[in-house]
Amino acid sequence: MRVAVLRERRGGETRVAATPETAKKLAALGCQVVVEAGAGSAAGFPDAAYVEAGAEIAPDAAAALAGAGILLKVRAPMAAGEGEVDELSLIPRGVLLIGLLEALTHPERAAAYAAAGIDACAMELLPRTTRAQSMDVLSSQANLAGYRAVIEAAGAFDKAFPMLMTAAGTIPAANVFVLGAGVAGLQAIATARRLGARVSATDVRPAAKEEIKSLGATFVGYEDEESRQAQTAGGYAKQLSAAFYAKQAEVVGAHIVKQDIVICTALVQGRKAPTLVTAEMVAGMKPGSVIVDIAADAGGNCALTRPGEMTVTDNGVKILGYTNWPGRIAHAASSLYARNLLTFLSTFWDKAAGRPSLPPEDDIIQGVSLTRGGAVVHPQLAAKA
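The structure corresponding to this sequence follows.
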C-alpha cells in the first residue's frame, strides 16, 4: 500500500499530515510512504528525517501520488483554479483521502471527490466518543490553539500576566476572560492561570460551568431553560435563539469592560462563528487591552475581527484575528495530527490484506465518510448531492 503525503499548498498552512515518527510506524504496517519534497519543512521536519525513517521523497505532487492507495492531507486537496497545482486531478481513482476537508462549509467538495472516484474521510466530522478520542483531530489541534492564543496575548499585552511585587511598587495581575470552554477554551484557561492571571470564562453549554470552575476560573454567563439544552449529543454547542444571545450579551458586555485580555474560542460546527463581542463592547474596553479571536477562520466571535490580521481600534484595543492557530505552533500540531491519522488507520487496518478496511456500519466510519464507491454517503451531504 503506497501512502502519499503532499506539501500543503493552501495559504498559511504550515502543518504536515505525517511526521518521520508516523512514517516509520506506517512502514511497520507494510506501507510504502512517499513524501513530497519539502512537505514537512515549515513544521521543522526536513526531508532527510523522512528518509531516515524509511520514507521515499518524491520531487512533486504528481510523483508522490503516482500509484498511491492512501493520501494523507491536513487541508483539502487544491482543485482547478485554486492554486498553482490542481492536486485533485492528480489523485488516482480509488484512493482513500483522509484529512480536514471542511466538508460542511464546502459541500461541493464531496461531489467532486465522488466524481473523481475518491473515497474521502473528513476527520473534522469524527464522532466525539470515548473510542474515537485518540483519533480526534479537532481536540488535538484546538488544545494547541488555546495554548498558543494565550502566548500570543501575552506577547501583545504591554503589561504583565502575574501580579508582580517589586521595590518600586506592585503590578496587578491581568484579568483574562475566555469565551467558550471547549477544548481550546479550557486550555486557554489553564495556560492563563499558569501564567498568573485572574481568569473568568463563559460558555452556553451546561456542562461547561463545572469544567470552568474545576480549573480555578470564575464562571460568567446567563442561564435559562434554553441554555440547558445547548449541547448536541456529540458534545458540540448548538445554535441558540437571538433572544438568548441578547441576554447573554448583556452579561458578557458588563464583564468585558473590566478585562485586560479576551480570548474568543466559540464555534458552532458547520456554521459561522457566533458574534459574542460587539463593536460597542470593544469601545468600552481599556486602551492596551487585547482580544485574541481563535474563531477567526469561521468569521470570528468579535464583530471587529479581520480574519488573518492584527488590528488596533481607535481606543487602543489590539485584536488578533490570525487564522490557522494550530499552524502557529506547527511542529507540535503536526506531531499530534499525524498521530491521530496513524491511529485511525491502525484501528481499521486489515493485516492480512495489507490495507485499511472501513466497515460502513461502524459509528466512526459513518461519521467521517464523505464518499464511497463514487457516491456521496454522508447523511448531511448525500441529499444535497
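The two ends are 30 Å apart (CA to CA).
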